[in-house]
Specification:
Helices cover 66% and strands 6% of the residues. It is mainly alpha-helical. It starts with a helix and ends with a helix.
Amino acid sequence: MIWVSWRRQRTEALIAAAVLLALAAFLVPTGLHMASVYHHDGLSTCLGPAGGASCDDTIQSFTDRFSSLNNLIAWTTLLPGLLGVLLAAPFMLEFEHGTHRLAWTQSVTRGRWIAGKLGLAVACALVAALILTLLLTWWHAPLVRLNGRMDNGVYDSEGIVIFGYTLFALGLATAVGAVWRRGVPAIVAGFAAYFAVRLFVDTWLRQRLMPPLTATWHLMVPDPRALRHALVLDEYPADAHGHHVLIPANECGAGRALKRTPGLGDCFARHGYFMHAVYEPASRFWALQGIETALFAAGGGILLAFAAWWTYRRV
């Protein structure tokens, strides 16, 4: 049974392997180049408290140099969904082609057939997620040391969330395919639903998984250390108690985008303005990752269980 299931899963597994191999062929040389520049510019010396204005300029120059490449790599956040729905295809195609009837008339029970199919798909999905996580974590390492990993583009590629994303996409496509029994439409619908859920989580739910913290400080002093590598959800001028204030037009640059210019701190000091930030600290990275992974993995598990039940009872 396992051998037959692997034969049916083999094509999609090889396609997933080819995708990961192509990604590695792009990430390895660019990652080595970025790491070489990081060490050549001596950016590791800027990570301590001794780093000054020259370090800020060097870090900004390094970030700007690789910003386009980093923005391109950010699109890999779609890969867990693509891999998940791809690995769900063999299960759906069994119903579309009617080959499940042949298996059920042999010595294989319906329950064992379902368990073998879904178990192999889950195993392939977890292996693919592991490889993708290792590749992206290694590539992002220099940028993470400088800027942290709370930004969505890095957060979605680090830690353990890719496992949850892949399982959720697998479960979503499998559930749709079990009911619809059409391979390609189920793959498209599953990925579209996955993308919608990911967009909702990235833009709204993630910042509400844990109550955010706040900080109020004067621009004449350095930013609070708690904001270092944090995910800043909102930032605005405030009074000493953190209440939002409206700066009159043409005062302290209110007529244009508020920027950290040298004269801005003096202007804020003259008028008694402060800065206020709402943020998720970098120390919450693993807590947020654990909650989000649990939500996606639980959703994927429920959808897989539904697909198994529907197949066992309704097909």
